[in-house]
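Blinded run. Sample ID left blank on purpose so nobody reads anything into the name before looking at the predicted structure. Input follows.
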Amino acid sequence: SGVSQHQSPAAYSTQFGFELEGKERPNKPKAQVINMLGMAAEQALGKGARVVVYSGKEAPGDQHGSNRHKTGLAADIRVYDPQGNLVRLSDPRARDFALAAARYGARGIGAGAGYMGDAFHIDMVPHENYGPGQGPVWGEWGKRNRAAILEAMGL
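Blinded prediction complete.
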């Protein structure tokens, strides 16, 4: 099962933005996902980092793409440093962020050119709940960093 450690929002200073209105997945992910992302962003980027969630959870009965989002345990995000700069996948801090997210309980990380640009899919869906063909790491960038991500996940 997934990691159950749960820290209060007071455990980090990361700011969050939600760009979900009118989207296919308009609902915020569960608090444990927000907390994991907040702690990971602060650890990798410093106090005052920002995470923008632009794809959260579908409305009941809807499903768009992966079945991971309907659980409330997944988010598509962009990450910004404390100076407000988008952390691109070519930035070494993107890897730092992904590894921190894995250490704080992320079970699925997807990223890469041709997938979502300079953004991440990150989820806390337990591996035993994956569907056929699903794995813990995907996308061109994810595959390049696969060994380190899996190690950070404890796999």
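Unblinding after everyone has recorded impressions. Residues 95 and 145 are 8 Å apart (CA to CA).
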